[in-house]
Design goal:
single chain, 172 residues, alpha+beta, Pnp Oxidase, Chain A, six-stranded antiparallel beta barrel, 36% strand
């Protein structure tokens, strides 16, 4: 049983509380490639997107050049109840590769200390190897447990799964 009616605004607020997610790309042979990344979120007044900084040399960037389809998962672990499955928000979508020298995106990465650390210490030579990944999500977002009372999930782990839609005006 959900605690309240859940809106995309609530989900977006939850996404903004975190900076770590898991990106899944597709290898050349069709198998999945999964890696943890730090991410930032587009400003609230703009179209919704998630951003990751990566080297052009990394496998995820190579995979995205070939196939821009990704899945991006944000976990919300229960730190006091470790036996309970983590809540999750999953975005499926496509990725655009953008140049690293983008003042607007660099500004987004200055909003949180951990994100500033990624971009501020790169020298000019290193910056040539880096890009931004813009994750453009599909309208349907898969969610597990976010907004649910933890004890309401005791009846069965399947109770907490639901989908929510990103409003059309927030889609790219």
């Amino acid at each position: 049983m959900k605690q309240k009616e859940i809106t995309f605004s609530f989900i977006e607020d939850m996404v903004r509380t975190k900076t770590f997610g898991i990106i899944n790309t597709v290898n050349q042979d069709g198998s999945p490639h999964t890696t943890g990344v730090l991410y930032a979120v587009s400003p609230p007044e703009s179209k919704f997107a998630l951003y990751v900084v990566t080297s052009k040399k990394y496998k995820k960037a190579e995979n995205i050049k070939r196939n821009p389809t990704v899945s991006f998962i944000i976990t919300f672990p229960h730190h006091f109840f470790r036996f309970v499955p983590s809540n999750t928000i999953t975005f499926n979508g496509k990725v655009e590769i953008l140049p690293f020298e983008n003042e607007e995106l660099l500004a987004i990465f200055t909003e949180k200390r951990i994100l500033r650390m990624i971009t501020k210490d790169l020298d000019l030579e290193e910056k040539k190897d880096y890009v931004f990944l813009k994750i453009i999500p599909e309208p349907k977002v898969q969610v597990y447990g976010v907004g649910y009372n933890l004890f309401a999930l005791r009846g069965g782990h399947t109770e907490g799964g639901y989908a929510i839609r990103i409003p059309a005006e927030r889609l790219d």
